[in-house]
Amino acid sequence: MPQIGQIKKNDKIILYGFGGGLTHCGQLIKWPYES
To answer: Which residues form the Beta-ketoacyl-[acyl-carrier-protein] synthase III C-terminal domain (predicted)?
Structure first.
């Protein structure tokens, strides 16, 4: 499970560790797995 607030610069995605996150554009996304 990703750490809360972890930033993947290569994907420009902020991970929140709840099975989803925000893209650099602020869009809600869902990960291919459930936390």
So the answer is: 5-31
pTM value? 0.16
Residue 23's Cα: distance from chain center in Å? 7
Q: Would you state the structure tokens that stand for residue 32, as one six-digit string?
A: 């291919």
* Pairwise CA distance, residues 7 & 27, whole Å: 15
Task: Tell me the C-alpha distance between 33 and 11, whole Å.
Answer: 17
Q: Give the full edge-to-edge strand order of the sheet including 13-15.
A: 6-8, 13-15, 20-23, 28-30
